[in-house]
Automatic annotation (TrEMBL), chain A:
It is an enzyme of class 1 (oxidoreductase). The glycine cleavage system catalyzes the degradation of glycine. The P protein binds the alpha-amino group of glycine through its pyridoxal phosphate cofactor; CO(2) is released and the remaining methylamine moiety is then transferred to the lipoamide cofactor of the H protein. It comes from Candidatus Danuiimicrobium aquiferis. InterPro entries: GcvPA, GDC-P_N, GDC_P, PyrdxlP-dep_Trfase, PyrdxlP-dep_Trfase_major, PyrdxlP-dep_Trfase_small. This is Probable glycine dehydrogenase (decarboxylating) subunit 1. CDD domains: GDC-P.
Automatic annotation (TrEMBL), chain B:
GO terms for cellular component: cytosol; glycine cleavage complex. Pfam families: GCV_H. NCBIfam families: gcvH, PRK01202.1. This is Glycine cleavage system H protein. GO terms for biological process: glycine decarboxylation via glycine cleavage system; protein lipoylation. Binds 1 lipoyl cofactor covalently. It comes from the Bacteria. SUPFAM superfamilies: Single hybrid motif. Its cofactor is (R)-lipoate. Keywords: Lipoyl. Belongs to the GcvH family. The glycine cleavage system is composed of four proteins: P, T, L and H.
From TrEMBL, chain C:
This is Probable glycine dehydrogenase (decarboxylating) subunit 2. Belongs to the GcvP family. C-terminal subunit subfamily. Pfam families: GcvP2_C (PF21478), GDC-P (PF02347). The modification N6-(pyridoxal phosphate)lysine is found at K280. Signal peptide: none annotated. One of its GO terms (molecular function) is glycine binding. InterPro entries: GcvPB, GDC-P_C, GDC-P_N, GDC_P, PyrdxlP-dep_Trfase, PyrdxlP-dep_Trfase_major, PyrdxlP-dep_Trfase_small. Its EC number is 1.4.4.2. The glycine cleavage system catalyzes the degradation of glycine. The P protein binds the alpha-amino group of glycine through its pyridoxal phosphate cofactor; CO(2) is released and the remaining methylamine moiety is then transferred to the lipoamide cofactor of the H protein.
Length: 447, 128, 495
């Protein structure tokens, strides 16, 4: 209760200045029966007690730092340089509002401009917005862009796109004319071209594909891209952003929109958020981008200046005619990605990508040699892959937990036919010894 | 402000030029002044059918976006692509080089229900 | 574009890319350990990136200087008075940051087994319960990531509710003309037609116009209370009765809850759906524009439509409930902006009920004090007792060629962030001022002095305002140039 600067003397003087005897006089317009409701809240805590109690609750969680984890599937444990936290902890950044007053926000604005620039380089595309809530909502907004741009109503999305992204996209399409149809995958988890060809029609506004996909497979988009564009549809590519440090970028695949989850770029897992939805596109679609965009211009003296731009379509101006209702972005998370990418730099981002793919390949090879374990993602991978056990995954994970390890996601949760299958992820954070230990424990467990 | 006599006008500040069966549409000097610096024009597609009174395209300033309404029904015949690279034309030459689109009307008689220059000027004076 | 060469380091606006030099790196990465296995070689060339992502190359010390100097070009709550109306720029307690940053919260994975994250789930469950208590709603979902996201969720719930009753005619959403732009945008994005309801002479919803618009096509009325003029909708009980009598729902935009928190509950007023902005009322930082959190609360009838999953407690264990067949579905991956939710819960636990009451009490005192003092200098169009904010109009300076925005810009020179300008739309040349409970009487008095000084300048030499600010890192940017020739990345500069 300490942070209230008005003393009782202040209150007294201020009420007198306002011209009332009591505070309640100012609330006369509020119906009496609404006032002073009974509200049940726990007692206020002192700062000391709050620190203790919340630390205790934090201590009840099993963390990725204390336990050896091979869990991925949309949330990745990556190395985060210390500089990231130090920069975003500057309260000049984190206690500022959306940069509506450019003269008082050049710091935020330049930082977002740098984020946009870095994301263009990483994805090989031309225009990035200032970020979205997360990968799932970035996809949903991309679909809206595609529907508006092509004035068509149907979307094809690979079943190998992260299930949570597909679920959110479906929710967003309620109340619009958009219809979402899925394209299946082959037994080796590749995008099913035959199924795709059957479903591709002149009504298709966009085709969504994730690479590396939910099963870890890096897809070859050569033929898909040709078919999509010959059909006059847009190609929307999702993917782990660090994989673009080594694998072909969305721009090189001629994707029209790259979108996805930016969490791997210097953001903690944090039980699923706040993270970062990235959305990068071509010049042709620039004016369809929802959300904040920072542009460079000059001030009255001709100095370099940054400001929010292309705002005329946004909700605060267009109201019900706005193409999206989005007001905020995840600016502070975009800042984490900005600092992270700048710290890694050109060679660092490639090296991180290589460390991931080497670790994952090593782990895959090692597990492939274990009896009772079958590797199912046999093609090119980045940092995760599917394996099959002869027992339910719940059992495997329970055994791992006893040994202080965290296993992978049980695929049956989202794909009922994929029984006894799980996704293992090995990022650059895993040492050879840790992976060897994991393999040897699994040897015992899988028997 | 200037409202050429040979043109017809709408309440939503479009001007209409008729040359036989070809109709050219733009926005008035009053409208460009209210919008201030035009930064972008989203033009319609050639071949689209448009309906009198319905929005056809969008003119944007830094702080606002304005719908441009079809003064007459018909089919879009041509669009002024010069506005894509130089939207400021609308501020400089609203009745000339900054026309927005050409249409072939489905009902030429709609022309007669549009306002004359004098009528439009009256509307502006009344502060509509 | 040229960068001037002989300028103060602090004012330097060079980009990372322009400071980059080949061969530098910001951090030593682990060495590759399986080089001899040549995994990379097994990967077809056709799948590989042709050339490296062209990222800048700088050392850690260079990077730190770059970013810290950028931070110094910002106004923020921690450095400046920030009376930005409807944004509730209150102080963000530091303990919130420390708690959210604990390893036990920041290094846990959303797909871990629930038995491994009981401490986390308990916080989410208790926060949801506390928000239900504070708002008087039957259940609160923590899923939405921002206020606008909460609104969209609320509109989807509205749609699902009417459809579940076979009522397909309800295609319209009503919003007052004073509403935030997001309200109509959210309704529009969800496929609704938007009908605007005029305000009456007292700045409140016009009941007669409302009654007229309420027909069997009306799905919902979206209302901010207090509204964007800072005025309490004193006909709220009649409004609610009328809306419900016609079978529509009443939606509460929680942007202005700071005026009421602890003392008044939207649930008691009769609202069916609400969203909260935890980054406003509940002190989580705005972060230059995000991340925030926009939990959505509903009345009992609407619980089945809430997004999945909800967090439940069963047999002493916390877990997720996905089994909600009538749910609108998932609106975000995983469970919401958890890190933001933790901060809000720390705030609630530190204040308790008495503290929350004090929040709205002091916010209202501060706003009325400023309103009273400024109304002797400026025009306050609806000069009634306000709640947490109020609106002044500078339209009497039209003849001098001054706009509300010019007053805002001049404030920057006095070290005060501009109020919200040109909003709400129903007041010409509006400046919307929200001091929050954070500010002391001394700060408010200083603000009044500054506003008096600016008033004098506006009368005597309006050009001072027109060309302001003078003391910020840049003067007014050319926004027309920015929009006509968009330069949106380093690539565009090179072009």
């Amino acid at each position: 209760m300490e942070n209230f600067p008005l003393t009782s003397e202040d209150q007294h003087q201020m009420l007198a200045e306002i011209g009332v005897q009591h505070f309640g006089e100012m609330l006369k317009c509020i119906p009496e029966k609404l006032r002073n409701p009974k509200i049940n809240l726990p007692e206020a805590l002192s700062e000391l007690d709050a620190q203790k109690w919340f630390c205790e609750l934090a201590g009840q969680n099993i963390t990725l730092k204390q336990n050896l984890s091979f869990l991925g599937s949309g949330c990745y444990e990556h190395f985060i340089p210390s500089i990231v936290r130090h920069v975003v902890s500057r309260s000049e950044f984190y206690t500022a509002y959306t940069p509506y007053q450019p003269e008082a926000s050049q710091g935020s604005l330049q930082m977002l401009f740098e984020y946009q620039s870095l994301m263009c380089e990483l994805t090989g595309l031309e225009v990035s917005n200032g970020s979205h809530y997360d990968g799932a909502t970035a996809l949903a907004e991309s679909l809206m862009m595609a529907l508006n741009h092509t004035r068509r109503n149907n979307i094809l999305i690979a079943s190998s796109v992260h299930p949570e992204y597909r679920l959110v996209a479906r929710t967003y399409l309620q109340g619009t004319h958009g219809v979402l149809e899925e394209v299946s995958f082959s037994p080796d988890f590749a995008f099913d071209l035959n199924d795709f060809k059957k479903k591709l029609s002149p009504e298709i506004a966009a085709v969504v594909i994730q690479s590396p996909n939910f099963f870890g497979l890096v897809e070859d988009l050569t033929e898909i891209e040709k078919l999509v564009h010959a059909n006059g549809s847009l190609l929307i590519m999702m993917g782990h952003p660090l994989s673009f440090g080594f694998f072909k970028s969305p721009g090189e695949w001629h994707a029209d929109i790259a979108c996805g989850e930016g969490q791997p770029l210097g953001i903690v897992p944090g039980f699923g958020g706040p993270w970062l939805g990235y959305l990068v596109t071509t010049k042709a679609l620039m004016r369809r981008i929802p959300g904040r965009l920072v542009g460079m211009t000059k001030d009255h003296e001709g100095r370099r200046a940054f400001c929010l731009t292309l705002q005329a379509r946004e909700q605060h101006i267009r109201r019900e005619k706005a193409p999206s209702n989005i007001c905020s972005n995840q600016a502070l998370c975009a800042m984490m990605a900005c600092v992270y990418l700048a710290t890694l730099g050109e060679s660092g981002v490639k090296q991180i990508a290589e460390l991931n793919l080497e670790n994952a390949n090593y782990l895959r090879d090692s597990l492939g040699a274990v009896p009772g374990i079958e590797v199912l993602t046999k093609g090119t991978i980045f940092n995760e892959f599917v394996v099959k056990f002869s027992k339910p995954i719940q059992k495997i994970n329970g055994e791992l937990r006893k040994r202080g390890m965290i296993g992978g996601l049980d695929l049956e949760r989202f794909y009922p036919t994929l029984k006894n299958q799980t996704v293992f992820c090995a990022t650059e954070t895993k040492s050879k010894a840790e992976m060897d230990r994991f393999v040897s424990e699994l040897k015992r467990i899988s028997q | 402000m200037n409202y050429p006599n040979e043109l017809r006008y709408t309440k939503t500040h479009e001007w209409v030029r008729r040359d036989g069966n070809v109709i050219k549409v733009g926005i008035t000097e009053y409208a460009q002044h209210e919008i201030t610096d035009v930064v972008y024009v989203e033009l319609p597609h050639v071949g689209n059918s448009i309906e009198s009174g319905k929005p056809v395209c969008i003119v944007e300033s830094v702080k606002a976006a304005f719908d441009i309404y079809a003064p007459m029904s018909g089919v879009i015949k041509a669009i002024n692509t010069a506005l894509e690279s130089d939207p400021g034309l609308i501020n400089r030459d609203p009745y000339g080089s900054a026309w927005l689109f050409e249409l072939s009307p489905s009902n030429v008689e709609e022309w007669d229900s549009l306002m004359t220059s004098a009528q439009y000027e009256q509307v502006i004076k009344q502060g509509v | 574009m040229n960068v001037e060469s002989h300028i103060n380091l602090e004012q330097d606006s060079k980009l990372l890319f322009e400071k980059s030099k080949p061969g530098k790196s910001g951090t030593p990465l682990p060495k590759r350990k399986f080089q001899n296995r040549n995994f990379g070689k097994l990967i077809p060339q056709s799948l590989q990136r042709a050339s490296g992502a062209r990222l800048p190359q700088l050392t850690e010390s260079e990077l730190i200087r770059h970013f810290i100097n950028l931070s110094r070009k910002n106004f923020s709550v921690d450095t400046h008075f920030y009376p930005l109306g409807s944004c509730t720029m209150k102080y963000n307690p530091k303990i919130n940051e420390d708690i959210a940053g604990l390893e036990g919260f920041s290094w846990i994975h959303p797909y871990q087994d629930i038995s491994e994250v009981q401490g986390m789930l308990r916080i989410l469950h208790e926060l949801s319960t506390a928000l239900s208590e504070i708002t008087g709603m039957a259940e609160v979902s923590l899923q939405p990531a921002a206020g606008a996201h909460g609104e969209l969720t609320g509109m989807m719930i509205t749609r699902a509710y009417h459809l579940s009753r076979g009522d397909t005619k309800r295609t319209r959403v009503l919003v007052p003309d004073s509403s935030h732009g997001t309200n109509p945008a959210s309704a529009g994005q969800c496929g609704f037609e938007v009908v605007q309801i005029p305000s009456n002479a007292r700045g409140r919803v016009d009941l007669i116009a409302l009654e007229a618009a309420l027909d069997d096509r009306a799905a919902c009325l979206m209302l901010t209370n207090p509204n964007t003029l800072g005025l309490f909708e004193d006909d709220i009980l009649q409004i609610c009765e009328a809306v419900h009598r016609k079978g529509a729902l009443l939606y509460y935009d929680g942007a202005n809850l700071n005026a009421l928190v602890g003392n008044l509950r939207p649930g008691d007023m009769g609202f069916d759906i609400i969203h909260l902005n935890l980054h406003k009322t509940f002190s989580t930082p705005h972060g230059c524009g995000g991340p925030g959190a926009g939990p959505v609360g509903v009345s009992k009838t609407l619980i089945p439509f809430l997004p999945v999953p909800s967090i439940v407690k069963k047999d002493g264990q916390y877990g997720f409930d996905y089994n909600r067949p009538a749910s609108i579905g998932k609106v975000k991956s995983f469970y919401g902006n958890v890190g933001v939710l933790i901060r809000a819960y720390v705030y609630i636990r530190m204040l308790g009920l008495d503290g929350l009451k004090r929040v709205s009490h002091d916010a209202v005192v501060n706003a009325n004090y400023l309103r009273k003092k400024l109304s002797t200098i400026y025009n306050v169009p609806y000069n009634d007792f306000c709640m947490h904010e109020f609106v002044i109009s500078t339209s009497n300076f039209d003849s001098k060629g001054l706009h509300a925005g010019d007053f805002g810009k001049r404030l920057l020179d006095y070290g005060i962030h501009a109020p919200t300008v040109h909003f709400p739309l129903i007041v010409k040349e509006a400046l919307m001022i929200e001091p929050t409970e954070t500010e002391s009487k001394e700060m408010l008095d200083r603000f009044v002095d500054v506003m008096r000084q600016i008033h004098r300048e506006a009368n005597e030499s309006p050009d001072i305002l027109k060309n302001a600010p003078y003391t910020t890192p840049i003067s007014r940017p050319d926004e027309v140039l920015a929009a006509r020739n968009p330069v949106l990345s380093f690539r565009d500069i090179e072009r």
